[in-house]
Amino acid sequence: MASSKSRQRKLERDRYERKLVRQAQQQRRKRQIQAGVGAFLALALIGVGSAWLAGVFDRDESEPSAQPDLCTWLPRDADDPNRVDVGTPPDNPPTSGQHVLSIDLAAGDTGGQVEVAVDAADDPCGTASLIHLSEQGFYDETVCHEITDGALRCGDPSATGLGGPSYAFWGENMPLPPVDADPEAAEAEPLYPAGTVAFGDVSGENGSQFLIFFEDFHADAPLFPVIGAVADGQDVVEEIGAAGVAEGTTTPAEEVTVRSLTVRDAGTAPTS
Q: What CATH number labels 74-265?
């Protein structure tokens, strides 16, 4: 009987010892895992700190933070009496959109409304400039000072050919010379057909001056960036062109005035 109880106690002691061993092993594995995670975090923090001290996370100021502006408005001499300070158009105007440029012309007993179809996609900066100047009333009551190259030249408040806003820009919509194997056929196709409207600043840097062609103009190379084409009122410009110029000058025979110039979205009614 005693021996049976002794064996029972021994078995219970063995089970208890095995349980202690398992618990010890589990505790040891847990400590090992915790130690490994701690070491990993410590190394990660050391690595991040070293990188920060080395300037890895510093912003590189040499790299542009944004895309460059679409339009560059070149400043002109603010003290030039022929220049008018009206600020500048937006640097990043819309790059699409159909517009109508409405020009109300007065010329003696003639005159009338000329409407020009303008596509902003052809020259976003040029379109933005026209909209900006029209909103400032820049063109209103200005004189069209010249007839040249089969076109009426307008848009200079000083009427000298030297005037414009206090900025300039490079027009983008230059016409392409016709490509044809037959030189005579290429020569017969004008770069600036009648009805073309183009920027016309004599400096080549565009501002406010524009040309409305009442005749085909044959040029050997592109000279003027195109604004658009007359959609209505071409007869008004042709009448002014037919009246000719004052003797010995390029000034229209009868004074031609831009009563107003406005730009509106295509499809909208003109404002009175």
A: 2.40.100.10
Pairing of strands 83-84, 164-165: parallel
Q: What's the pLDDT tens digit per position in 110-124?
A: 889 999 999 999 999
Report the share of the chain in percent with pLDDT over 70: 70
Tell me the whole-structure pTM to 2 decimals: 0.73
Collapsing DSSP to helix, strand or coil, 207 comes out as: coil
What type of residue is 67? Answer: Q
How many Cβ atoms sit within 10 Å of the Cβ of residue 251? Answer: 17
Burial 180-204 (b: 16+ CB within 10 A, else e): eeeeeeeeeebbbebbbbbbbbeee
C-alpha distances in Å from residue 191, one per residue of 116, 175, 214, 219: 18, 7, 13, 6
Residue type, 11: L
Tens-place pLDDT, residues 62-80:
555 567 899 999 998 878 9
**First-to-last CA distance in the chain?**
124
| Contact of 152 with 256, CB cutoff 8 Å | yes
Residue indicated by tokens 């900066």: 125
